Amino acid sequence: MNSAFIGTDLRQRLDEQGLTTLVVAGLTTDHCVSTTVRMAGNFGFETLLVGDACATFTKTGVQGEVFSAELIHQTALASLHQEFATVVSTAAAIALAEARSPSGAIVNPD
To answer: Which DSSP letter does residue 26 get?
Structure first.
């Protein structure tokens, strides 16, 4: 599957917990991460994409040109930022989690 929402009960679990903010990281920025983030945004979640906690791979274009993994990664982030998510750094995501949790700990819904 190319999204954390497809073939899972993720949305139901998030809704049951009353969670409205998601923090997303993973592989691959331009594929699975992008699809998950786009769906989360369309579902109305406040979505933070941790850009430095994602990565992708070098791609070969349809005419044989080679696009570096970094170029693919950065353009995927640019496509998602301020439309489906807010791209943040790991440090910013941790600071935000600490600010939102009274104990300063990152809360795990399980």
So the answer is: E
